[in-house]
Each structure stands twice: as structure tokens, then as C-alpha cells.
Amino acid sequence: MTRFFTRSFAAATAAFFTTALFANNHFEKIADHASKVQRESAQMSQSLKAKKADASEISKSLESAGAEIAKLQDLVNQIEAQQPAFSERDRKDWELLKTKVQLLSIFHDRKKELVSGDFAKQRGLIRAHAEGLAKRAALLQQTASRLKAVTPNQAGS
Fold first, then answer.
1. How is the chain split into domains, by residue range?
2. Which CATH class name applies to 2-155?
3. What is the enclosing helix (H) or strand (E) of 142?
4. Whole-structure pTM value
5. Which phi and psi angles does 50 have, rounded to 5°?
6. Helix (H) or strand (E) holding 150
């Protein structure tokens, strides 16, 4: 009987640590992809300062940022599917992280609409959206880093 409980406890502990390590690995990837979105958006903003900004260059940067945002959404979905156990504070950060990824997607979609319209007239607004996207990506990195810093022992408390 004791062996049964020992094995059950060992299996449960292994599953818990595997889930926590899975989530930490994904939080690291989220921070990395958010960093790429931040860089792309900051570069777009800088490029849009010029009066004769290259629309095709902005479109390419926008596509690249869109690919990173899609990866962020995929990572969030993968973590969600694992249903990791978070403390109350970490659960709030997790909800905040999901919201920030959704906001990045919304900002990106809006920026895409603006770029496809009258680029010259919308340059200032596109630049403002690029700056907003860069700031939100930086905040997403901070939230992902906070969640990544949770050790497996803390994840279930």
C-alpha cells in the first residue's frame, strides 16, 4: 500500500514539474517573440518619422510583426491547453498576459488597415500605432518574465 502511495505521489509530482517547466519554456518564448514585435514596431515608428517613408518596407515589417503575434497567440493557446496551476497572483498575471496578446493583435490588425489605405495621409496615425504596439510588446515581455520567474514550487501554491 505504501508503494502505491509513493508511486502515485511521484507520478503527480513529475506531472506537476513537467507542466510547470512546459509553461516556463513557453513564457520564455513569449518574451522572445514579444521582443521581436517590439523591435519591428520601433523600427516602423522610426521609419515613419521620415516624410518619404517607404510603404513597402513598412508592409514587410508589418507582416513580420504579424507572424510574431500569431506565434504569441499559438503559445498562449498551448499553455491554456495544459491548464497549469497558478497561484492567485500568477493567475492575474496570466490573464493580463492573455489580454496583452489580444491587444497586440488588435493593434496590429488596425495598423494593417491603415497601411492598406492612404498611406501618406495616415503616416502619423500608423506611427502612433507602431509606438503603441512597441510599448505593449514591452509590457508583455515584463509580464511573461514575471510568470517565467515562478519556480515550479510556487506555481501550485
1. 2-155
2. mainly alpha
3. helix 119-148
4. 0.78
5. -70, 140
6. none
